[in-house]
Write a structure and sequence with these properties.
Pfam families: SnoaL_3 (PF13474). This is Nuclear transport factor 2 family protein. Residues 18-146 form the SnoaL-like domain. The protein is 34% helix and 36% strand. With 160 residues, the protein is α+β, with helices and mostly antiparallel strands. It starts with 6 loop residues before the first helix and ends with a helix.
């Protein structure tokens, strides 16, 4: 007779693994590590990966998506992500992560300076992961800039 399966423990382990894969994605971007970033995306073209960077058209296919990250990394001197509002939803072998990317980035340094001007940006993102034999891999990333103020900020302004 086999031991009863603890579905709650398995689900918690899956959520932790997806959160780890999501964190690894942003760490690879921060470190400019294209090799690590490449390893995080679904291999091959069995399920076509896709990516939407803020303000860009949809990129489809592993090659096109990874080229876009190589371009971003080559033109970004410094980038750091502070993730907030992270949520994970799962069904079967698919996981959906939503989060807010609080981004601090700097471009190439100007003459006589070690780093270009730093710019802050707020982006809401959806990352879709698929379970593979090698762990959870990115299937799709979609980032959209936050252009409108949130209701909380508006409430603070009207109560002052």
């Amino acid at each position: 007779m086999s031991e009863p399966r603890d579905d709650h423990a398995a689900a918690a382990a899956d959520i932790a693994a997806v959160e780890g894969a999501n964190t690894a994605f942003y760490e690879a971007l921060e470190q400019g590590d294209l090799e690590a970033l490449t390893a995080l995306w679904l291999p091959g073209e069995d399920l076509t990966v896709s990516c939407v960077h803020p303000g860009w058209p949809v990129l489809s296919g592993r090659g096109e998506v990874l080229r876009s990250y190589a371009l971003i990394m080559a033109n970004t001197e410094y980038i750091q992500f502070f993730l907030t509002d992270v949520g994970v939803s799962m069904t079967g072998d698919t996981a959906l992560v939503t989060c807010t990317e609080n981004i601090l980035s700097g471009g190439p340094a100007e003459e006589g300076s070690s780093l270009g001007p730093l710019v802050g940006q707020l982006v809401v993102a959806t990352n879709v992961f698929r379970r593979t034999l090698d762990g959870w891999k990115l299937w799709s990333h979609h980032g959209s800039p936050v252009l409108a103020e949130t209701g909380e900020e508006e409430d603070e302004e009207t109560s002052s």
